From TrEMBL:
Binding site for Zn(2+): C77, H80, C150
Enzymatic reactions: GTP + H2O = 7,8-dihydroneopterin 3'-triphosphate + formate + H(+)
Cytoplasm in keyword set: no
Pathway field: Cofactor biosynthesis; 7,8-dihydroneopterin triphosphate biosynthesis; 7,8-dihydroneopterin triphosphate from GTP: step 1/1
Keywords, ordered alphabetically: GTP-binding, Hydrolase, Metal-binding, Nucleotide-binding, One-carbon metabolism, Zinc
GO MF, one example: GTP cyclohydrolase I activity
Record's subunit section: Homopolymer.
Pfam families xref list: GTP_cyclohydroI
Name of the protein: GTP cyclohydrolase 1
UniProt organism field: Nonomuraea typhae
Amino acid sequence: MNIDQARIEKAVREILIAIGEDPDRDGLLDTPARVARAYAEQFSGLHQQPEDVLTKVFDVDHDEMVLVRDIEVYSTCEHHLVPFHGVAHVGYIPNDKGQVTGLSKLARLVDVYARRPQVQERMTSQIADALMRVLEPRGVIVVIEAEHLCMTMRGVRKPGAKTLTSAVRGDFRTSDKTRAEAMSLILCR
Ligand SMILES: Nc1nc2c(ncn2[C@@H]2O[C@H](COP(=O)(O)OP(=O)(O)OP(=O)(O)O)[C@@H](O)[C@H]2O)c(=O)[nH]1
Ligand SMILES: [Zn+2]
C-alpha cells in the first residue's frame, strides 16, 4: 500500500479536535491536506528501495576510498514523530572491478532511509548494509551526527546535544588503519 493521504487528512482533523482546536477555522481549513502532502514526502522512503537509487554503476580505475561528507539529513524520530536533522558521512572502498556509483546516489540513498519513521542507529546500519549489498565494495563506513528535536524542543530539553552513530563494514571493520583514515577525513573541518 502506498501513502494514503485521505486517511492522513482524516486523522489530522481528529488530532486538531483532540487538542481543543477548531479544524474549521480559516487558518486550519487546509491543514489536514497540507500535512498529508508533507507526510507523503517525509515518509516516501518507505516505498523506495536502495536499488531504485543506486542504479548507475560505472567502472573506473579507482580502488581507494570514496567519501562524501556533510550530506544534509532530515528524518523523523519514530518515537515522537518530530524531526531529527544533521549530517551524514558516507564512504566506501570500491571492489577490484572498480565499481563505483554516482556521488549524488549516496545522498539519494541516505534519503531513502531518512524519509521513514526512524531511529538514528537503524538508519545508519541500513545505509551501510544497502551499500554493501548493491555495490559489493571492499568496505563501507557511515557516520551520522544529528540533533533530535524530541530532545531539544520538549522532554529533556537539551538543545545542542548531538548524537553520533557509526556503522562500519568490510575493510573499515577489520582494519584499524583504514577506519582511522576515514575518521580523520570525516572529522577534519
Ligand atoms: N536510541 C535512540 N533513541 C531515540 C532516538 N530518537 C529518540 N530517542 C529516544 O527515545 C526515547 C523514548 O523514550 P520514552 O520514555 O518511551 O518516551 P518519553 O517519555 O517521551 O521520553 P522523553 O523524551 O525522555 O520525555 C527517548 O529517550 C528519546 O530520546 C533515536 O534515534 N535513537
Ligand atoms: Zn523522539
